[in-house]
Design goal:
Elements (H helix, E strand, L loop, with lengths): L9 H18 L12 H22 L3 H22 L13 H20 L3 H21 L5 H20 L7 H23 L3 H4 L2 H14 L2 H6 L3 H22 L1
Helix pairs in contact: 2-3, 2-5, 3-4, 4-5, 6-7, 6-11, 7-9, 9-11
């Protein structure tokens, strides 16, 4: 990547290490696959690199470009190795994907551009640059019939994002269609969260934080019916506020 590669000096690394350790308590090491993972070596390598992606996302969202650069540097390095080992040698489930090599290389290019922006202190530009990666990798798995535990977490996140739109645009309780839309989004979110709980690998299912995040969110979401019956806009909004942080942490820790 030439001169744009960030060479984080030892003093900066030392100052960031404490933050990285603290963040590690939040993110941990997510389990990418499941018992039926069809390409564990590749998916484990992706999971290792993707952890840095999530951490960079976390810091960039808070405007901390310097710490994000630390994570993006690791992402770029690990993704470069991943491209070298797998771009011309796709695992069996991806062998017939005509976009395989292009996707891997595009993700690497995006990571490099985000790193450049972070090094320049441009948190928003780096954040925006990284946005597509999450969907690109999910699309790659989906069109090749690969479904990992990560995808159940993605489903929970995606369905809640749709439900969260009612935070800014509360339902019109006098409009049956508006209420039906809320109920439909609520049911989809509850179903996705329940699937996330049901499909969790043994190590994740045994994780106290995971269990608390999902079960607490389900408990709160199921109160939405009472809020709807009471036609309480405030209660609907408060429920959504209550779950949004857990929804974000679920992806940051286990996505």
């Amino acid at each position: 990547m030439g001169s744009v590669v960030v060479m984080v000096n030892s003093m900066v690394r030392a100052s960031l290490l404490g933050l990285a350790v603290l963040f590690g308590a939040l993110t941990g090491t997510a389990t990418a696959g499941s018992v039926s993972d069809p390409a564990p070596a590749f998916h484990n390598a992706v999971s290792d690199a993707y952890g840095h992606y999530r951490e960079a996302f976390f810091y960039l969202r808070r405007g901390n470009a310097m710490t994000a650069a630390f994570e993006l540097e690791a992402l770029v390095e690990k993704w470069h190795v991943l491209i070298k080992e797998h771009a011309s040698n796709p695992p069996t489930p991806y062998a017939k994907d005509g976009q395989w090599a292009a996707v891997l290389k595009n993700v690497g290019s995006i990571a490099e551009k985000a790193l450049e922006a972070a090094v320049s202190g441009e948190s928003k530009a780096a954040y925006d640059e990284l946005q597509p990666v999450r969907g690109m990798l999910r699309d790659l798995r989906e069109r090749n019939g690969v479904r990992l535990f990560r995808d159940y977490v993605e489903d929970a996140n995606a369905t809640f994002r749709e439900l969260f739109k009612f935070r800014r645009n509360p339902p019109d309780f006098e409009n049956p269609q508006s209420v039906a839309s809320l109920r439909k989004n609520l049911a989809a979110t509850i179903s996705a969260y329940q699937s996330c709980l049901d499909q969790a690998p043994a190590d994740v299912a045994a994780d106290e934080q995971f269990h608390r995040l999902v079960t607490d969110s389900l408990e709160v979401l199921k109160r939405m019916d009472l809020a709807i019956e009471a036609k309480s806009e405030l209660r609907v909004i408060n429920i959504l506020r209550r779950v949004v942080s857990s929804n974000n942490i679920l992806w940051m820790r286990f996505g």
